[in-house]
Design a protein that fits this description.
The chain is about 30% helix and about 15% strand. The chain has a single domain, classed as Rossmann fold. It contains nine helices and nine strands. About 5% of the residues have low confidence. It is α/β, with parallel strands linked by helices. A seven-stranded mixed beta sheet has the order 3-2-1-4-5-9-8. Strands 6-7 form a two-stranded parallel sheet.
């Protein structure tokens, strides 16, 4: 792998739970906390979405006080939310089908319930992830972001996540969030149905990150920073390995 020092972030375009009409979208901290970690490590990032263009923000990601440590408007989230130049990046995202995978070292899929509606339906996203993986690039996702992994098949016809250790937003967490009747499917169950080895934290909303080769997944909003650090560490190790193995 030739390092580009760039990471592609993929977010949702959907802003509504289809069955109930609740507003949804990107869970903002899942973008910002990852961005902060990767930027500090010297990585540049582009933001893409299935349809391109404007990205909606889940209003609850701005106001839930009991989850403030993971999701609320404080610290880096508050600063970035008030940074017009940064927030303008969400007005004109790249279209996934237009992305050149050779320009990036890794892909990161942020969550928010919106991804449950557009990520699994996006054939270009599934194809892009497969290209990343088969080009020895890091695949990462957090919370509902692993919805983007559900329909990814490799060139051998098998699901990318078959036999892989993964995590994602658990059904217990969906029940606590009172979105069990609004979501189109049970993410935990769908990951298992594709023969992934799913695991979760003993306590809902505790940080939980799972690594399996090039695949790095986090369970919930509180796992974002740890996912970012794991991605950076993996990329640095891969770059070091490529450098040391290069013939002199």
């Amino acid at each position: 792998m030739t390092a580009t020092k760039k990471i592609l972030i993929v977010v949702t375009n959907d802003d509504e739970f289809e069955k109930v009409g609740f507003r949804t979208g990107l869970w903002l901290s899942e973008l910002i906390h990852f961005w902060e970690v990767a930027e500090e490590a010297g990585y540049q990032m582009d933001i893409a979405s299935p349809s391109g263009g404007k990205v909606p923000i889940d209003p609850e990601s701005l106001i839930i006080p009991e989850m403030a440590n993971a999701t609320g408007l404080k610290g880096e989230v508050s600063k970035r939310y008030e940074d017009r130049a940064f927030m303008n990046l969400l007005d004109n995202t790249l279209k996934v089908s237009d992305v050149d995978p050779t320009a990036y070292d890794a892909i990161y899929m942020a969550g928010g319930h919106g991804v449950m509606f557009d990520f699994p339906k996006s054939v270009p996203l599934a194809e892009l992830i497969a290209k990343f993986y088969e080009s020895n690039k890091v695949i990462s996702a957090v919370c509902h972001g692993p919805c983007g992994l559900l329909e990814v098949k490799l060139s051998n016809g098998e699901y990318l996540i078959k036999g892989k250790n993964v995590t994602g937003f658990s059904w217990n967490e969906e029940l606590i969030a009172k979105r069990d009747r609004a979501v189109p499917f049970n993410l935990e169950e769908e990951l298992r149905r594709r023969d992934a080895e799913y695991s979760k934290a003993l306590v809902p909303f505790n940080s939980h990150v799972v690594e399996d080769g090039l695949l790095i997944t986090g369970q919930n909003p509180g796992s974002v920073r740890a996912v970012g650090k794991a991605v950076v560490k993996k990329l640095e190790a891969m770059t070091q390995e490529a450098t040391t193995s290069r013939p002199t």
